C-alpha cells in the first residue's frame, strides 16, 4: 500500500502447512530489522545462537560468492586462538544444518576451507533491494534503516562489517530513490518519490525541496507548514542547518499564506509546556541533579510530536512567562542518605495554575544518569495521555463553533478510550471532519486508523473488509506524512499486525516507533502484541510490562492488560492469564478483546460457571462471535497457538460457527 510495505513476494514469509514445489525457495531470509528465517512450509528455522545466525547472514549477503572459513572466524571469533575459532565455527555450522533440517544439504555447501549458501532455492530481502534499479524499483520498498538489529555487539570486527554493509545498502537505496525522484513530473508522484527518499535519508535537501515545492504548488498550506517543520527538525537533529536554497524556498512557500492561515497554524500548534528546573528542598549537592533532570524531562517530552516543550529557564535568565506556556511542569527534590524523592506536578496555567496531575518518585541513588533517565521516561509517558484527555475534555466542554482539526482530534480521543458505542461513533465523525479541514494532518490519519481497528475488533463494522482496508490506507498515509511520529508508526504497525495479519512488518514499525520515542507506552504494548502473534511470548511479556511500568495509570491500562493476557495464556500460564484478564475487564468492560482469550483460558481450566458468565457478556458485545470467526480474525501466526486458542473456546461452550 505504501512504498515501504513489504508487498514483494520475497518479503512475505507465509505460514501454513504446505509442501515446497519445484523451483520454489527452500529458505526465505529477512535481514532488515531483526533477522528472520522461514523454510518452504512457512516454519521458522532461525538458529538459536546469535553467532550461528550471523554466519547464516554473512553467507546470504555474500552469495553467490564462497566465504572462507578464516573470514568468518575473523569476523565472529576475532579474539580467540585460531583452533578455538575453527572449533566454534564447526559448532555453528552443525547448528545451522540442524536448523535448516532436511533442506540443509541442498542449501548449504560446506568445504574444508569455505562455506557457500546456494542461490537457486534462496530468497533474501536484501538481495531484492540490491537488484532494484530506477527502471525496476520494486525492491526499494524493502529497505529499512536497521540491518540485523538483533546481532549487534557479537564482535567488534562483525560490528564494523555490519556498519559497512548498512552504508552500502543505504547508498544503493538512496541512489535508486534519487533517480526516481528526478524522473517525476506529476505533483502526487513527486510527493511519493520524495517521501520514499526521505525514509532512506531524512537529511536529503533535494527531497525536502521537492516536497515543499510540491505541497506549495498543490495549495495545501497546512501540509506545507508541516513539511517545513519536519525539514528543519530533521536537519537540526543531525546538527545541520537548511542551505540558502532551501531557506529561500521555505520563505517563498510560507510568505504566500494569507493572514488567516497564520492564525490557523497557531491554533493547531499543540500544547506549549514549560519545564521548570526541580527545586532542591535541601542544598545537599542536588543542584547538578536538578538541572540534569530538567534536561532529561524536556528531551523525553519533546519526543511527543504534539507537545511543544521549552526549558523554563531558557533563554538564559528569562522567566517561563516569556514563553506563554499552556502548562507548567514543576518539581521538588528531597534527599535522605542514598534515597531521593522527586515530586512532579503538572499545572494548568489557564486555570490559575491548578494541579492536573502529580506523581511521587522514590528511588535509590546508585547511578545519577540512570535515575534521571528513568524518572524522565516515566514522567513523559504519564503526562502525554493526561494532557490528551485533559485537553480533549476541555475542548468538548467548550463546544467550539468552528473547531480546528487539532481541536477535533483531541475531542475524539476521550470517546475512543471509553468505547461507548454512541460516543465512539461521534469520535469517528470528528476525525473525519478533522481530515476534511486539514488533509495533511498525520495525527488525524493515525487516530482514525486506530478508530477503524477498534471498530473491527469490537465487531461494530458493517463491512469488516472495507474497514480493514480503510484502516490500512489511513495508517500508511499517517506514516507518509510524518515518518518521525512515533505514535503514527506504532498505530500503523498495529494495523499491519492485528488487522492485516502481517506481524513481521508490524514489528519493524514498532521498533522504529520505540527508537523515536522510548517513552511511548502504547508503542511498547503494541510491539509486545505483535511479538506474541509470532509466538515470541517472553519478549511480548517484557515489552508490555515495560509499557505498564512507564504508565501504571494509563487510559490504555485496560488495553495493556488485555495484551498481556495473551502471551501468558499461550505459554500455558493460565492462572496468571485469568488474573490479568479479570483486571482488563474490570478496567473497561466494554472492550470485547479482553473477553476472548479470557474465555479460552477458562475453558482450558474447566471453570464452566465462570466461562458461561463471561461468554454471556462477550456475546452481548459481539452477538455473532463464534469459534470460526475467532479463528478467521485471529492474527496468531503459529498453528499450535491458534489451535490452543480455538480449543479453549470450544471447551468453554462457544458455538462453532
Written account of the structure:
- With 657 residues, the chain is of the alpha/beta class.
- Among the domains are: 9-167, Orthogonal Bundle (Arc Repressor Mutant, subunit A); 203-267, no CATH class; 271-382, Rossmann fold (3-Layer(aba) Sandwich), CATH 3.40.50; 554-657, Tetratricopeptide repeat domain (Serine Threonine Protein Phosphatase 5, Tetratricopeptide repeat).
- A hairpin with a 5-residue loop joins strand 11 and strand 12.
- The chain starts with 26 loop residues before the first strand and ends in a 6-residue tail after the last helix.
- The longest helix has 31 residues, at 368-398.
- Strands 7, 8, 9, 10, 11 and 12 form a six-stranded mixed β-sheet that branches. The protein has a three-stranded mixed β-sheet with strand order 2-1-6. Strands 3-5-4 form a three-stranded antiparallel β-sheet.
- The chain has helices spanning 50-62, 69-76, 82-100, 104-107, 125-130, 156-183, 187-200, 205-218, 221-237, 244-255, 259-267, 287-302, 368-398, 405-418, 421-437, 442-457, 464-481, 486-499, 503-516, 521-533, 537-550, 557-570, 574-587, 595-605, 608-621, 627-633, 639-651; strands at 27-30, 36-39, 67-68, 108-110, 114-117, 122-124, 271-275, 279-280, 307-311, 327-336, 339-348, 354-364.
- Helix 8 runs antiparallel to helix 9 and helix 23 packs antiparallel against helix 24 (595-605).
- Helix content is 58%, strand content 10%.
- It contains 27 helices and twelve strands.
Amino acid at each position: 500500500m505504501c512504498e515501504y510495505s513489504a508487498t514483494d513476494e520475497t518479503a512475505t514469509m507465509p505460514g501454513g502447512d504446505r509442501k515446497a514445489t519445484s523451483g520454489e525457495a527452500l529458505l526465505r531470509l529477512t535481514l532488515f530489522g531483526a533477522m528472520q528465517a522461514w523454510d518452504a512450509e512457512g516454519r521458522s528455522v532461525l538458529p538459536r545462537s546469535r553467532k550461528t545466525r550471523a554466519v547464516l547472514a554473512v553467507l546470504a549477503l555474500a552469495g553467490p560468492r564462497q566465504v572462507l572459513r578464516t573470514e568468518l572466524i575473523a569476523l565472529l571469533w576475532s579474539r580467540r586462538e585460531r583452533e578455538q575459532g575453527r572449533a566454534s565455527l564447526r559448532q555453528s555450522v552443525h547448528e545451522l544444518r540442524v536448523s535448516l533440517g532436511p533442506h540443509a544439504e541442498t542449501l548449504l555447501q560446506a568445504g574444508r576451507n569455505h562455506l557457500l549458501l546456494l542461490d537457486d532455492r534462496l530468497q533474501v530481502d536484501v538481495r531484492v533491494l540490491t537488484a532494484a534499479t530506477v527502471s525496476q524499483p520494486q525492491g526499494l520498498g524493502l529497505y529499512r534503516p536497521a540491518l540485523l538489529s538483533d546481532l549487534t555487539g557479537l564482535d567488534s570486527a562483525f560490528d564494523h562489517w555490519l556498519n559497512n554493509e548498512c552504508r552500502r545498502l543505504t547508498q544503493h537505496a538512496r541512489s535508486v530513490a534519487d533517480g526516481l525522484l528526478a524522473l517525476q513530473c506529476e505533483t502526487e508522484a513527486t510527493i511519493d518519490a520524495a517521501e520514499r527518499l526521505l525514509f532512506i535519508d531524512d537529511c536529503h535537501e533535494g527531497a525536502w525541496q521537492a516536497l515543499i515545492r510540491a505541497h506549495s504548488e498543490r495549495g495545501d498550506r497546512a501540509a506545507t507548514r508541516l513539511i517545513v517543520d519536519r525539514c528543519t527538525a530533521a536537519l537540526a537533529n543531525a546538527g545541520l542547518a537548511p542551505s540558502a536554497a532551501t531557506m529561500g524556498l521555505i520563505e517563498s512557500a510560507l510568505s504566500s499564506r494569507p493572514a488567516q492561515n497564520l492564525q490557523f497554524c497557531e491554533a493547531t500548534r499543540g500544547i506549549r509546556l514549560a519545564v521548570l528546573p526541580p527545586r532542591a528542598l535541601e542544598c545537599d549537592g542536588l543542584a547538578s541533579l536538578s538541572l540534569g533532570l530538567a534536561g532529561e524531562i524536556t528531551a523525553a517530552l519533546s519526543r511527543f510530536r504534539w507537545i511543544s516543550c521549552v526549558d523554563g529557564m531558557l533563554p538564559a535568565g528569562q522567566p517561563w512567562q516569556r514563553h506563554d506556556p499552556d502548562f507548567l511542569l514543576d518539581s521538588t527534590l528531597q534527599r535522605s542518605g542514598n534515597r531521593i524523592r522527586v515530586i512532579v506536578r503538572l499545572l494548568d496555567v489557564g486555570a490559575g495554575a491548578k494541579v492536573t496531575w502529580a506523581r511521587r518518585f522514590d528511588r535509590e541513588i546508585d547511578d545519577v544518569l540512570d535515575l534521571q533517565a528513568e524518572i524522565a521516561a516515566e514522567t513523559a509517558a504519564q503526562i502525554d495521555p493526561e494532557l490528551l484527555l485533559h485537553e480533549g475534555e476541555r475542548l468538548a466542554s467548550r463546544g467550539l463553533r468552528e473547531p480546528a482539526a487539532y481541536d477535533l482530534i483531541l475531542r475524539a480521543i476521550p470517546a475512543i478510550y471509553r468505547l461507548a458505542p454512541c460516543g465512539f461513533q461521534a469520535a469517528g465523525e470528528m476525525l473525519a471532519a478533522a481530515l476534511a479541514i486539514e488533509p495533511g494532518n498525520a495525527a488525524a490519519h493515525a487516530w482514525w486508523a486506530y478508530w477503524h481497528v477498534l471498530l473491527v475488533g469490537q465487531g461494530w463494522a458493517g463491512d469488516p473488509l472495507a474497514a480493514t482496508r480503510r484502516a490500512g490506507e489511513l495508517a500508511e498515509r499517517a506514516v507518509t506524512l510524518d515518518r518521525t511520529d512515533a505514535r503514527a508508526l506504532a498505530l500503523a504497525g498495529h494495523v499491519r499486525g492485528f488487522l492485516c495479519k502481517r506481524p513481521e512488518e508490524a514489528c519493524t514499525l514498532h521498533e522504529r516507533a520505540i527508537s523515536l520515542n522510548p517513552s511511548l507506552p502504547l508503542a511498547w504494548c503494541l510491539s509486545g502484541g505483535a511479538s506474541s502473534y509470532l509466538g515470541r511470548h517472553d519478549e511480548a511479556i517484557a515489552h508490555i510490562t515495560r509499557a505498564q511500568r512507564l504508565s501504571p495509570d494509563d487510559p490504555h491500562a485496560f488495553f495493556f492488560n488485555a495484551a498481556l493476557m495473551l502471551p501468558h495464556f499461550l505459554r500455558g500460564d493460565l492462572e496468571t492469564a485469568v488474573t490479568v484478564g479479570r483486571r482488563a475487564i474490570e478496567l473497561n468492560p466494554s472492550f470485547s478483546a479482553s473477553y476472548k482469550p479470557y474465555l479460552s483460558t477458562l475453558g482450558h481450566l474447566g471453570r464452566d460457571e465462570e466461562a458461561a458468565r463471561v461468554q454471556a457478556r462477550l456475546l452481548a458485545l459481539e452477538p455473532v462471535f463464534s469459534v470460526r470467526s475467532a479463528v478467521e480474525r485471529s492474527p496468531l501466526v503459529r498453528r499450535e497457538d491458534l489451535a490452543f486458542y480455538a480449543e479453549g473456546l470450544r471447551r468453554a461452550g462457544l458455538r462453532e460457527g
